[in-house]
Each structure stands twice: as structure tokens, then as C-alpha cells.
Amino acid sequence: MPELPEVETVANGVHARIHGQTIRSVWTSNKPQTFKSAPDEIIEVLTGSRIDRVHRVGKTIVVDLTRNKKSAQFLVHLGMTGRLLVSTPDTPVPAHTHAILALGSGKELRFVDARRFGRLSVIASATPEEKYAGPGAEPLTIGLEEFITLFHNRKTPIKAALLNQSLLHGVGNIYADESLFHAGIRPTRHAGRLTRAELTRLRAALIKVLTEAIKLGGSSVSDYVDADGVAGFFQLHHHAYSRTGQPCRICATPIKRIVVGGRSTHFCPTCQK
DNA sequence: CTGACATCCTGACGGC
DNA sequence: TGCCGTCAGGATGTCA
């Protein structure tokens, strides 16, 4: 399941392969829920545009475009199972392909998404004010004071607050569990009751975990792969996520699984207070 | 406004 | 072997 490190890995990989190219033509599937903008508008905005840069904002892949000398953006959210692949036209089109962009180089950019939680949209006129900024703050660059303020007076469990994209965007279930483990904080603690020292540890742990995961190409849980279809390796470094019943890597206490905010949540009952 | 919870969707997996 | 039920989860919508 793609979160910030996986989305960043995909965006960087796709950027390296297709930036500078022009989109010759676009095909879309007939599954309406995949398209947050109307398919006709997506086709209109993309066709003939030049791809300047592919990057990440939160969990969204942002493709910066130049169209008739004006800026536009193509937004790709991978959901759970979405993939953005650079392929040659003779590569068989996988099942559940929802968009194909034919590029000037002869290659294709394909969006494939079995479970259809992913979303595609465009910003037709991306003036500096209208450029996609995401719903929340960037976990990798947020300052300590702003981070602490985010959780002030929140009654929700800290795990649920970390998953709330309008506070911090980019953190999902894996990195919420991992950062809480490294900060030694129970996922069920009320966000607003965490001490300044705990929030300081949490921010540091979050940045450390995300940075390390980006270095290793993300976590391959379920079926995540990068732009080349290659898996990441960070799952080998997980301390809590998906380790139910296995011994804590620090104290050997079995990792416990509970449900918080409707999401499976993993923690060490000894290390996390 | 805030928080809790159901919903979407399909593939993987376990049990019988 | 094969069928069926259950589970996973990000964002969104609904409801209290």
C-alpha cells in the first residue's frame, strides 16, 4: 500500500524516465470512479502537453505540465493498489488498466489499479496559487512548533490523528505504526494529551522512519512496486506493522494487534507507553 | 466542527 | 481440488 516513501519512489522513477516528453495521445477506461476529473477533461488537458516534472505532494503524484505555454497539472493518487508504469507499447496491457498516455519517445505511461481506490484528476490552469498543495502539512519538512500545534486539543487517538491527511499528509497505516513504535508511544493515547517531549520524539521518529524507507525504495507489503515493477525493501525493517505475535525486536514481548480508528494497529505493549 | 463508522473494490488467504 | 467467507485499506460521505 503506497504511502509517502512508496509514492516518492514511484514519482522519482517516473520522472527520470519521462520528463521533457510530450504526451501524444491518451486513452481512458470506462470506470467512472477512477476519474475525479471528467475523462474528457483529462484527455483534453494532457494531449499535446509537455511533462516538465514528476514529484510528490503527500500521497499524490503530481505531474507538472506545460500546455500552450501555460502550466497545468496531472494528479495521480495510487489508492491501495494503484501502479504507474512506464512501458513499451508491445508490453501486454495488464488487467485493470485505467489510463494509457502515449509519449513522444514511443513509450507509454500506464495507470493500473485493481481495487480502484486510486484517483486521476487534472488542474487545467495551474497558476502559482492554484498548484496542488495537498490537504495537510508535509511530514518531512514541518517544524517542531507547527507539529505540536497540529495535535493540540485533539481528542482522537494519536494513531487516528497521524492518519488524518488534513493534519499531516503522506502518513498511512505502516508509517503511523512504525513511528509510534520508535517514539515509544501507545497508538491509543489521546493526541491532545501527549507531552511536548513525546511529540518531539514522535516528529523525530516519523522523519527518521520516512527518510530511511525512501532510501530503501519503500515497503513492499501487498503488491507495491516502483516504476520499473521492482519491490522495495523497507518491510524487512518494520518493528511493529504486520508483526502480530512476533517478538518485539527490542524486548521480545509479542507484538499486539488492535483496531484503532477502524484500522489494524500494531504495537509493543512493553516498549510503548 | 469533531469524531466514529460504513462504504467502495478485488485479490489473497485460510478453512473445510 | 475447489469453493466460500473474511480481510486489507485511503478517502469520502453520513450521522450523532
Briefly, what is this?
By secondary structure, the chain is an alpha+beta fold.
Present the secondary structure layout.
Elements: H1 4-18, E1 23-28, H2 39-46, E2 50-57, E3 60-67, E4 70-77, E5 82-87, E6 97-103, E7 108-113, E8 119-123, H3 144-150, H4 158-163, H5 173-183, H6 196-215, E9 256-260, E10 263-267
Antiparallel strand pairs: 1-6, 2-3, 3-4, 4-8, 5-7, 6-7, 9-10
The protein binds a DNA duplex (16 and 16 nucleotides) through loops.
What can you tell me about this protein's structure?
The structure is a single chain. The protein has 273 residues and is of the alpha+beta class. The chain is 25% helix and 23% strand. It contains six helices and ten strands. The strands form three sheets. The chain has a four-stranded antiparallel beta sheet, with helices on one face. Strands 2-3-4-8 form a four-stranded antiparallel beta sheet, covered by helices on one side. The longest helix is centred in the C-terminal third of the chain and has 20 residues. The mean pLDDT is 89. It binds a DNA duplex (16 and 16 nucleotides) through loops.
Considering DSSP H and I runs of 4 or more, what fraction of the residues is helical? Answer: 10-25%
CATH architecture of the largest domain: Orthogonal Bundle
Strand runs, count? 10
- Rounded to an integer in angstroms, the radius of gyration calculated over CA atoms is 20 Å
SSE string:
HEHEEEEEEEHHHHEE
Average pLDDT reading: 89
Shape: elongated
* CATH topology category name of the largest domain: Helicase, Ruva Protein, domain 3
Question: Unreliable stretches, pLDDT < 50, 5 or more residues?
Answer: none
What profile does the largest beta sheet have?
A: 4 strands, antiparallel
